[in-house]
Write a structure and sequence with these properties.
By secondary structure, the protein is of the alpha/beta class. The protein contains 16 helices and eleven strands. Helix 2 packs parallel to helix 4 (74-88) and helix 14 (369-404) crosses helix 16 (481-504). The protein binds pyridoxal-5'-phosphate (PLP). Pyridoxal-5'-phosphate (PLP) binds next to helix 7.
Length: 506
């Protein structure tokens, strides 16, 4: 079969409304890259987010407009979208963005996403995505290597930390149930209650997993934490043994490797010993912290990740991949196929190659790996160790600042998260008095909102020991010492203003 020369194929092109003339595509693509480069370059000089109301944003989007009946000109549409987003977005790549755990995007990842979309590989099967499948497998292996996990592990990329944890949870569920849980579900005759063990600092993915996968959130045993907010391993042992004595069956123990609120790392090696003695699946939620294992400054507990049966890791956190990219790693790769594989008659996929559809919940899958793979090759292990080490060092520098100042109270420092609250200097001696605590709580809540909306910087919050605190998390290779040095003054200026207003209020 021959398809004839390209020119004659071009002459036969269908007239499709979505098709774009190659010359226009090329010109528009160049223009877009210029606009993106200008936007990225301008970030330090602009606010983290523009001062605007939700109505301003909706008006800019023209959100009441009806679905267009007929299409428009691609060049003006893309130009308009670029201008709209440049004006009305929040930029987590801004040097003064310290919110949640959302990283600055690696520029090579931005380009990788465009290339991935152009190839549009469906990475569910090797047949549909030969190079993309090989690239994903290598990416997964490199992530394992970077965190000191066995490179023989099975794994795949998913949308983020929640999904990576879900995949590991389901692999553990299949192994923990002595019956065929995939066929009969949880309500097999005589089936015990499956229990999940994790610290109270665990991210909310665990509730979603227990809820979505039929256990219910009552199945979660919240293990107490020590003063550093790490799981109390003696308590874990007691609770597991009491449940077993009552006839319940542990599904898994979750060790958090970098908690969302404070960056606390559970004592993974000690938890692994309990799991080993009792034959329980150990899952490490390293969505945030696992990647720090490559940095010399990381806590020692992270060196024990290799003891876990599964690990969730988020490339869109500390590999600085543009959203979305999570990664599930499972020591025994067959646990993934045992949990997810089906062989429907309508797929003709050969078994001698990797077909990712058998390894996870997704069917059609995008080419997420490309942006991660390119970034890993661009920075290398040493580059990542340096960037992550710098983030950790800068969080420490910020913590030192707030610890020394009379108008701040420092709370915790873990990985690259510092927590603190603004305390007007005259109230410092009265911290702990109920009236003062109520004032500080209201003040710091209002302060968070005000700082976020100001565009001067973006921090988020945590609640520690019942106290509402501000939280700066650095997973941002654009943030430097000058930014960190300026942050306390930015917060204090807004804080002093608000404090005066709150005291004036009736
Ligand atoms: C420890 C931990 N686990 C899971 C998640 C969920 O990750 P994602 O938001 O990528 O789904 C987060 C997010 O911050 C996290 O910090």
């Amino acid at each position: 079969v021959t398809h004839g020369p390209a020119e004659s194929r071009g002459a036969l092109r269908r007239d499709a409304p979505l098709d774009l003339d190659p010359a226009e595509f090329r010109a528009l693509g160049h223009e877009l890259v210029e606009a993106v480069a200008a936007m990225l370059e301008s970030l330090p000089a602009r606010p983290v987010v523009a001062r605007q109301t939700p109505d301003d944003v909706r008006a800019a989007v023209d959100d009441a407009a009806p679905l267009p009946e007929h299409g428009g000109d691609a060049t003006s549409l893309v130009r308009g979208a670029a201008a709209l987003l440049a004006r009305h977005s929040l930029f987590n790549g801004h040097p003064a963005f310290y919110g949640y755990i959302t990283s600055s995007p690696a520029p090579i990842g931005i380009l990788g996403d465009m290339l991935a979309a152009a190839v549009n590989a469906n990475v569910g099967s090797w047949t549909l995505a030969p190079a993309a499948t090989a690239i994903e497998a290598q990416t997964v292996r490199w992530i394992a290597e970077l965190i000191g996990y066995p490179t023989s592990a099975g794994g795949l990329l998913v949308s983020g930390g929640n999904m990576a944890n879900f995949v590991c949870f389901l692999a553990a569920r299949r192994r923990a149930a002595a019956w065929d849980v995939r066929t009969t579900g949880l309500r097999a005759p005589g089936a015990p209650n499956l229990r999940v063990y994790c610290s109270a600092e665990t991210h909310t993915w665990v509730q979603k997993a227990a809820d979505l996968f039929g256990l219910g959130t009552d199945s979660i045993r919240w293990v107490p934490v020590d003063d550093a907010l790490r799981m109390d391993v003696a308590a874990l042992r007691r609770i597991v043994d009491a449940d077993r004595a009552a006839g319940d069956a542990p599904l898994l123990v979750v060790a958090t490797a970098g908690s969302v609120s404070t960056g606390a790392v559970d004592p993974i090696a000690d938890i692994a010993a309990v799991c080993r003695e009792r034959g329980i699946w150990l899952h490490a939620d390293g969505a945030y912290g696992a990647l720090a294992a490559c940095a010399p400054a990381a806590p020692d507990a992270l060196r024990a990740l290799a003891l876990a049966d599964s690990v969730a890791v988020d490339p869109h956190k500390w590999l600085y991949a543009p959203l979305e990219a999570g990664c599930a790693l499972v020591r025994d790769a067959t646990a993934l196929t045992d949990a997810f594989s089906y062989h429907p008659p309508y797929y003709h996929f050969t078994a001698d190659v990797m077909n990712y559809v058998d390894y996870g919940p997704q069917n059609s899958r995008g080419f997420r790996a490309l942006k991660v793979w390119l970034a890993l090759r661009h920075a290398g292990r040493a580059g990542y160790a340096r960037m992550i080490g710098d983030d950790i060092r800068l969080a420490g520098r910020l913590f030192d600042h707030v610890r020394r100042r009379p108008d701040f109270e420092a709370f915790t420092l873990g990985l690259s998260i510092a927590t603190f609250r603004y305390v007007p200097a005259d109230l410092r001696p009265r911290v702990g008095e109920p009236g003062v605590e109520a004032h500080l709580d209201a003040l710091n809540r209002a302060l968070l909102d005000r700082v976020q909306k100001s565009g001067d910087a973006f921090v988020s919050n945590a609640v520690i020991g019942g106290r509402y605190v501000l939280r700066a998390c650095i997973v941002n290779f654009h943030t430097g010492e000058a930014d960190v040095d300026a942050l306390p003054d930015i917060i204090a200026a807004h804080g002093a203003d608000l404090d005066a207003a709150l005291r004036r209020a009736p």
